[in-house]
Amino acid sequence: MKTITVLLTAAALSLPFAAQAEFTGPGVPAAVTTVAAAQKAADDTPVTLEGKIVRQIDHKRYEFRDATGTMTVKISQKRLPAQKIDQNSKLRIVGEVDKELTSTKVDAKLVEVLP
Fold first, then answer.
1. Hey, how many other C-beta atoms are within 10 angstroms of the C-beta on 35?
2. What pTM did the predictor assign?
């Protein structure tokens, strides 16, 4: 009986941490797809950018460029792809706009190397 109680308690505690799906239907703003649009977008707007990292600013911030301009992208070490990348690597960055008082950047949630 004690084992069943422990198992049920553990299962109940793990529910809030389960992965949740995200609604993508009508009413959800479309993801911004260019640097120029990301710079004008509201805070927390989803983005999907394709382009290149042209330089590293510090250990988490990079200068990203596409055909419309450049902006800072914050990428944590765990989000970087396993393979090596350089200024010639074409990337897809999925994240969200982070508006601050004097600057706008993108916080990356996923970084993929494109062929």
1. 21
2. 0.73
